[in-house]
């Protein structure tokens, strides 16, 4: 079957206030968000939903739906991201987190890692004062104060340069980010991968906090409280890379099976917190143990945190991650102590 996906960049340009507009025409923002990130495939969506989106964007269905094009993945070496919600090259990723969950740490880490791969990193300062934002400045090649200055700096770079650009949600609310993306596209610059963060942590309960996105990284309060970093929720984070591209079926199958295990493990954790492990049904013990080990394996030491943790950063390529997760799913590490899986790179 031909691959179909929404033209998210077109939606972003044409309907920047998509959350409120979608509600006004009877569309659920969560459904629109899941369509944009690929969590709901275009082929499984209702025709009336697609028609309503095309009308909002004042375009035809042929313009709204992209056929046969793949979304390229940027491999980061961060296990949780690459497995569950890959970074879409040239797309927009939204980070949804409350303060203290580690969104700036993961952004700093990605800037640090991908600069070594030849990416140029550009950082737009937030409109308000956020002292914690200073931690990421050292990892940016270019730091700007305004949208116009950002446009000038990116426009000066060769169109062949791959760019990572990060900004706070305050610039999204004002509409400046969408205007910037449109201006860059008009001059043929389409190699900018955009990261949007919410420094105030105000949008954790919103369905469409940044408008249409190719990738959504939803941070998890429980993981953060238990210091299981990166605290990116493996179930609610998603990416159009998984649905829109000709993704390796081993990746897709492993991702889906890992999510299924972790979803059930989280349900069982609620029971264990009340009754202890003795309260687990015998038939669920294996599921709980494997989920616990998979969750531990998905923690990862970062290079940018070495000075604070004393633990050397680790990078794991996607194929090693898939191989390791398959081993965990198949029970090969059932007898391994949890402590030996916490904050490692790949399995030994």
TrEMBL record:
Key words, A-Z: ATP synthesis, ATP-binding, CF(1), Ion transport, Membrane, Nucleotide-binding, Translocase, Transport
Record's GO cellular component terms: proton-transporting ATP synthase complex
PROSITE patterns: ATPASE_ALPHA_BETA
Domain ATP synthase A/B type C-terminal: 246-319
Span of domain HTH cro/C1-type: 5-66
Cell compartments where the protein resides: Membrane
Record bears the keyword Membrane: yes
Chief location category: membrane
InterPro entries according to UniProt: ATP-synt_VA_C, ATPase_a/bsu_AS, ATPase_alpha/beta_chains, ATPase_F1/V1_b/a_C, Cro/C1-type_HTH, P-loop_NTPase
Pfam families with a match to the protein in the record: ATP-synt_VA_C, HTH_26
Record bears the keyword Amino-acid biosynthesis: no
Molecular function in Gene Ontology: ATP binding; proton-transporting ATP synthase activity, rotational mechanism
Family affiliation: Belongs to the ATPase alpha/beta chains family.
UniProt protein name: ATP synthase subunit B
């Amino acid at each position: 079957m031909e691959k179909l996906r929404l033209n998210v960049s077109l939606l972003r340009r044409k309907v920047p206030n998509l959350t409120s507009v979608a509600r006004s025409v009877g569309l659920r923002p969560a459904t629109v968000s899941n369509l944009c990130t690929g969590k709901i495939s275009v082929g499984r969506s209702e025709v009336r939903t697609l028609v309503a989106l095309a009308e909002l964007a004042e375009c035809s269905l042929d313009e709204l739906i992209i056929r046969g094009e793949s979304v390229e993945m940027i491999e980061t070496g961060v296990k949780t991201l690459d497995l569950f919600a890959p970074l879409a090259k040239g797309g927009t990723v939204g980070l949804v987190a409350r303060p203290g969950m580690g969104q700036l740490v993961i952004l700093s880490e990605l800037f640090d890692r991908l600069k070594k791969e030849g990416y140029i990193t550009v950082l737009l300062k937030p409109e308000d004062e956020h002292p914690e934002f200073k931690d990421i400045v050292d990892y940016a090649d270019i730091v700007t104060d305004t949208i116009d200055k950002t446009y000038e700096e990116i426009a000066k770079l060769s169109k062949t340069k791959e760019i990572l650009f990060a900004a706070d949600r305050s610039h999204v609310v004002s509409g400046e980010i969408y205007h910037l993306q449109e201006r860059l596209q008009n001059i043929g610059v389409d190699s900018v991968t955009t990261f949007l963060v919410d420094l105030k942590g105000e949008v954790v309960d919103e369905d469409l906090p940044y408008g249409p996105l190719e990738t959504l990284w939803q941070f998890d309060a429980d993981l953060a409280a238990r210091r299981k970093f990166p605290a990116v929720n493996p179930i609610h984070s998603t990416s159009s890379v998984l649905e829109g591209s000709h993704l390796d079926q081993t990746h897709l199958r492993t991702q889906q099976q890992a999510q299924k295990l972790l979803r059930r493990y989280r349900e069982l954790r609620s029971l264990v917190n009340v009754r202890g492990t003795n309260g687990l049904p015998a038939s669920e013990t294996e599921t709980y143990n494997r989920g616990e080990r998979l969750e531990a394996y998905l923690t990862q030491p970062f290079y940018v945190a070495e000075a604070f943790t004393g633990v050397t950063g680790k990078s794991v390529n996607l194929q090693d991650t898939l191989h390791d997760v398959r081993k965990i799913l198949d029970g090969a590490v059932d007898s391994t102590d949890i402590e030996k899986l916490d904050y490692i790179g790949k399995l030994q």
